[in-house]
Design goal:
Two copies of one chain form a homodimer. A nine-stranded antiparallel sheet of chain A has the order 3-4-7-9-8-12-13-11-10, with helices on one face. In chain A, strands 1-2-14 form a three-stranded mixed sheet. Chain A is built from six helices and 14 strands. Chain A starts with a strand and ends with a helix. The first copy, chain A, is α+β, with helices and mostly antiparallel strands.
């Protein structure tokens, strides 16, 4: 019997459909290539092929936009939003619009074109996370921005257009609908229980399969201590986060033959960073199923693998 | 300058990003194949390869589940929801669940394996639309169902697993989140203006590009008269709907080299079919861009083609 389950935060129902394919080996797909011989603007020596860097962790004495970096952040060459200008909110009859102002940056995670994030040394993953934080802290100084989204598209099926391992950051002038829904759902729970709904679901430390996952092997990473904004976590917490992210990705890679995946950092809006009811976290979504008409029409998801089974498969993976 | 636009119904913001690719020819992709020699369960003569039909328009004197049909509706062989059983709503601490009860059917639109929907005779398209209606009317008799979704996945990139032209129908025991959002948004507009928001945007007859489209060449088809539920339209209206759907798909096919696409029938829930504030319609979404981390994280969409430009391209297409 398939089961309908409701996410306790946003109220999104999912269908856990055990009649459909469900074991890791049922999700066949080719791993993203990381070996193309095409010239890559993120490779060392090609620093002039990207817009000038806004941040880089680099060897002492090396110049900006030259080799010597370990993590490098540059504006997206084809930004979805433009950094210069005012918002100019306006209405025309039924319709509201504003200028597409925002920041769109790329965090280049490594100099090594052939490595996926989880294959980097843990310290390097920690540096990448720290670069996320540094950029958020800087961009929050810009009063035009209300939300800063950090997300990773890994592999073509997950929407990546360049294979060199990278994460993206977009600062938006309004709080996105998906974020508002999450905040509203969390606030509703807090008003009822006077407890953070994420703290309530955090039986397992740091990394777990959520109750109502949209996708097979969807995995959330939740800091144990209650912090609303990603950038407010302490340096020491980034170390254990790097470990947790690396291990989760390694298990997913091994169980599912290196799938294409997305992850998204869910964090508080720029101006509301100390919320009793909200808890920042990362959601990892391997691309194993297709989002199509049903999902578009309903906002429902059909998931052929229960989170209990997925958790068991991932636990049983032998690492290293 | 990119532009942010807000959908006047659901309040979803989109980014019209003219800095990115935007002409029809910039969306390169291969058309779905309609010629595979693999055995197809929807072909004439293979009626025993599907579950027994629940509806068929067929020649007088022919038997169910044999050749002689023109449109045939069968249960999905791998249903997302199961037809037998009770809902058994229950809670476990933080978590709500219920049995995955519902109907999942397939409308086989033609006996001709090689034709895409818009290539069928208009009368056949009308029959397909009428089959949608007949199934909705029948399933609404089942008190367990609250919503009936009709959607089409055409082409592998749009989530189709069989190439033979078909549409799907799913009856769900709750009103999906995406539907509730649309209803709530429409109600808010009605309370303010005492007018249906869809009637307000219906300057153009029947087929148009919406103000804030999520995807390039997203096209909506809206009946001119105010009707909330698809199945309440009159027989005569199905004739002009068949024309409008055919012409829209033909223009999209010609402009974009036969793209993979989804369409979704947006209609009122089972128990609220006479709403002053809601207006049924069809949304056609060619699959030209990828939904990835940014869209997952925000609920925003980045659309590289403005609807004004898309409308112009589609208008200029010479048909037949």
């Amino acid at each position: 019997m398939p089961e309908l389950r409701k996410d306790p935060v946003v109220g999104r129902w999912v269908i856990i459909s055990t009649e459909r394919g469900r074991r890791p080996s049922d999700f066949n797909g080719s791993a993203p290539t990381l070996s193309s011989s095409k010239p890559c603007p993120f490779d060392v020596g090609n620093e002039d092929k990207t817009p000038p860097e806004v941040l880089a962790y680099r060897e002492a004495g090396t110049l900006p936009n030259t080799p010597g970096w370990t993590v490098r952040v540059v504006p997206n060459k084809f930004p979805a939003l433009q950094i210069e200008g005012g918002l100019d909110r306006r209405g025309e009859g039924l319709y509201d619009k504003m200028n597409g102002i925002g920041a769109h940056e790329v965090i280049i995670e490594t100099t090594d074109h052939t490595k996926e994030l989880s294959e980097l040394p843990t310290e390097q993953i920690e540096n990448v996370l720290w670069a996320f934080r540094d950029r958020v802290v800087d961009l929050k100084n810009d009063n035009r921005f209300r939300y800063i989204l950090i997300f990773k598209n890994h592999g073509e099926n997950a929407g990546a257009s360049l294979e060199h391992s990278h994460t993206q950051l977009v600062a938006t002038p309004i709080i996105p609908k998906a974020v508002t829904e999450e905040l509203d759902g969390a606030l509703q729970h807090y008003r009822l229980k006077e407890r953070c709904v994420f703290c309530d679901m955090n039986e397992h430390f740091v990394s777990f399969e959520p109750f109502a996952p949209r996708f097979p092997f969807e995995t959330w990473i939740l800091p144990r201590s209650h912090i609303s904004a990603f950038e407010d976590s302490q340096k020491s917490e980034f170390k254990s986060l790097a470990h947790a992210l690396q291990e989760s990705l390694q298990r997913i890679n091994k169980a599912l033959n290196r799938p294409h995946y997305n992850f998204i950092v869910h964090s508080a809006p720029c101006r509301d960073t100390r919320l009793d009811h909200y808890h920042w976290h990362i959601e990892i979504m391997p691309k194993l199923t297709k989002v199509a008409g049903f999902e578009w029409g309903t906002g429902f998801y059909i998931n052929p693998t229960s989170p209990e089974e997925a958790a068991q498969y991932l636990r049983e993976i032998q690492l290293g």
